Amino acid sequence: MNEEKIIQVENLTKKFGDFTAVKGITFDVYKGEIFGFLGANGAGKTTAMKMLIGISNPTSGKANVAGFDVLSQSEMVKKSIGYMSQKFSMYDDLTIKENITFFGGIYGLSRKQIKQKITQLVEELELQEVINNLVGSLPLGWKQKLSFSVALLHEPKIVFLDEPTGGVDPITRRQFWEMIYTQAYKGTTIFVTTHYMDEAEYCDRVSIMVDGAIEALDSPKKLKEQFQVDSMNDVFLKLARNIE
Amino acid sequence: MSISVQNISKSYKSIQAIDDVSFEVNEGELFGLIGPDGAGKTTIFRILTTLLLANEGNAKVLEFDVKQDYKAIRNSVGYMPGKFSLYQDLTVEENLTFFATIFGTTIEENYDLIEDIYVQIEPFKKRRAGALSGGMKQKLALCCALIHAPKVLFLDEPTTGVDPVSRKEFWQMLKRLQQKGITILVSTPYMDEASLCDRIALIQKGKILKIDSPSNIISKYDKVIYDIQSKNTHGLIHDLKNYSSHYSVYAFGEFIHYIDTNQNFNPNDLQDYLQQKNHTQIIIKPAQTTIEDVFMDL
């Protein structure tokens, strides 16, 4: 892992009226790192993530993502990152080819580049037979793998994955993580949220948000030592239980 | 017998959603349908709750036929669909009153059944259901499914997208309901929840692959699984897949689960191989089989 910081967050805060959803969080993410961003439902993960990808303004504090300030340079942030979520991935009513072309265009790729990307993805994901099929007709696992590739079309430095594997079968879930490993190995930083605690073990470092604040941040191994438990699931349960 | 399903099939146009599915759930049992999205779990729920007709086969709930006696079934079962389907514009209290009234009862009459769940959402009883957090919505939906004191409870993926703490609490609630004599059919894509059921059916692509108790499913699995770890996980997966006698290689938490095709597999040979590939801090040890291992090998 590289020591170059690709995300720097300082006292990042978001308030909605009287309610503080994110309470002055501070952390760094390094280049090529797989960074797990965990927390209970309602802990403030989504709010924090929205600020980092430049679609929600912080109330106070600072965040720099891929060299750009999320408040004053949010458009540049959006261009430098990839994003994939379980809820929104691709357009079901477009074919695979049309989706790739569409997202390539959105990310400002030239026709030639888009053509190259299509050829490359067809080969890597073995899409020869289905390239002209509607995305809606694909099994969920394929969709997820494809939308991960689409999020990487413009070769972003960081990709944000919001619960990328929800509901996916166990084998596809693992194939998906092998894609993540390969991408991180190539130097792309991975910022990922998940409810599967075994997946938390695959991350280089993990942060756990409780009630708007980051309550723990370290490698899975060190977190397990710190809380004297055998699994990340138990770390999570212990942290969230102690708060109540 | 609380639920009996015999050779049920259902297709939507060209898609075979479930294919010749049979299983039985005993009275008071906590029975799990375990499988990923698209396996056909929801179709089974919709047929058993009389919202959908099967193309073939028979099914009975509480000895009532799903076709002929659908009204009797609707009165005696509770159903919590996978999609949140309460009235978003009604408050917590209004939703609960509404469902109680529909079934000709009152909140008070069956309060003891929902009490320990309802007290957790009671502080928000004047809030509209649409404005609740995910965990709260789930608790409200469970209360609404219970308010007429059903004998059988159908829960379609109640914990999907829910964090580990809330999942654990939810399963504790289910155990308490089971102790009150309610038969529960629950589906989940989370394999770790399988072990909390009395019996489970592993289901994929519309077919039931196995039905048994979680402990039997694990003890009947005949392959030896090894936990393997080294400093470089990415390289380790790659190198294990290139090891000539490998059977399967899958990431499992902090370890890789490795199965060899060779009956006389010697871990030392693999250790040597990995050292040659420049792996450091290598660990190879027998692993605990999980439901997920079995599922992946079906």
TrEMBL record, chain A:
UniProt-listed Pfam families: ABC_tran (PF00005)
One Gene Ontology term of the molecular function aspect: ATP binding
The keyword Nucleotide-binding belongs to this UniProt entry's keyword annotation: yes
InterPro entries given in the database record: AAA+_ATPase, ABC_transporter-like_ATP-bd, P-loop_NTPase
Domain ABC transporter: 7-236
The UniProt record lists the keyword ATP-binding: yes
Keyword vocabulary terms for this entry: ATP-binding, Nucleotide-binding
Record's protein name: ABC transporter ATP-binding protein
Taxonomic path: Bacteria, Pseudomonadati, Bacteroidota, Flavobacteriia, Flavobacteriales
UniProtKB/TrEMBL annotation, chain B:
CDD domains referenced in this protein's UniProt entry, alphabetically: ABC_DR_subfamily_A
Entry-linked Gene3D superfamilies: P-loop containing nucleotide triphosphate hydrolases (3.40.50.300)
Domain spans labelled ABC transporter: 3-230
Single Gene Ontology MF annotation: ATP binding
Keywords for the protein's UniProt record, in alphabetical order: ATP-binding, Nucleotide-binding
PROSITE patterns: ABC_TRANSPORTER_1 (PS00211), ABC_TRANSPORTER_2 (PS50893)
Protein's name in the database: ABC transporter ATP-binding protein
Lineage: Bacteria, Pseudomonadati, Bacteroidota, Flavobacteriia, Flavobacteriales
